[in-house]
Amino acid sequence: MYRVFYLLVIVFFLSSCSSDTDKDQSLLSSLIAPNFSYKQDYFNCNLNKGNSLINIESFFSKIVDKYSEKSLEDLSLFLLFPDKDEIINSFTISIISQKNYESVLTLIEILKNQGIEDLASCSFAIHQKNGIKLINYSESNNDLFLQEILRCRFNEGYNYGTFKLSIDRFSNQIKSLKVPYSLSYVESKDNFDFLWINSFYEENYIETLSTRWIVLNDSDEIKDEFIANATCVDSSLYKAYKLI
Description:
The chain is of the alpha+beta class.
């Protein structure tokens, strides 16, 4: 699972204390905030005994039909299943909304009214975390892809502003290479914890990244900049299905 983590060189370790000049720069950079464009919610579910993937597919096909009957603000609904798991015991509902709490609440009500409690035990706490798509691979129309979610935290003295230059350099390189990959950044309320979300649209994504990006001369420099800014706690890889 962590091989993707290393290939993208988004492995972060705690850096040493910065100088007074670095601290001054950090104060200025703290004023730079992401131009968030959506809200992200994740709801973790444990499948009830006696249910299987077939039951999940049947249930959510009804949800898509019910959603189409409602006049809701645009939402994107995804199901995430742990990659490599032969038996499905859990899944995650991912909802991207256009900064509209009521639409998310309405969709949850649809899920409950259609009997999701009979299918699985889910936690439906709405957090509405701020998100932004940093790299958007618009050429993909595939509703099935791999998604890696990394839980990270900025190192002391660092923030999104100090990180932005590295992100921009990485983003520009990936876009120029036309790698079938997208990147999202989702921030917690405290502005220190964040999710780094990699989405891959090819099965041989490891080979693609190895041969097209890792070999670039300044990839090591970007890696070092990443290491200085943040530490990632863990990484989870999912099969992602877009339903809406």
